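hey so u asked for the seq, here:
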Amino acid sequence: MKLILVRHGQAEDYQQNDKTRQLTAFGQQQAQQTAQYIMQKYQPDLFIVSPYDRAQQTLAKFTQLAPEVEIQTYADITPADNAMSALRHLGDVSAECVLVVCHMPIVAKMAALVTATHAESYALAEARVFEMEILAADMGQEIDRFVPTQP
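ran it, structure tokens below
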């Protein structure tokens, strides 16, 4: 199976309510570039997304290209959540190619758990693709990476 972990695009500056921060125009462009790259190379059959607005807006670029793909919102993949708990929750899915849109630092921590390496920071709207037999810690190998270009 494949797991694609994506960080949301550039968002507005930090506000009192982090959940409602919106993507900037540049963040929208980043998300579009990443969605086009991923959807041309892979065929996700499940989208999983954080409930935060900026993650939802990033995922919208993917759903424009694949409106038929099921979407599930996971409340446990927000910035401060526990990566191991989130990965265990993801382990319950039955899909061949799962795309997850969430946040730093949890996205980097989940990637590190999958590959049993150190957590490497994600760029804005970066996507990393992992191949594995089952979705679990220490079971994956990174096979692709995409970072959107600057305008």
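The chain has one domain: 2-11+22-146. The beta strands are 2-7, 46-49, 70-73, 97-102, 127-132, 140-146.
lmk if thats what u needed
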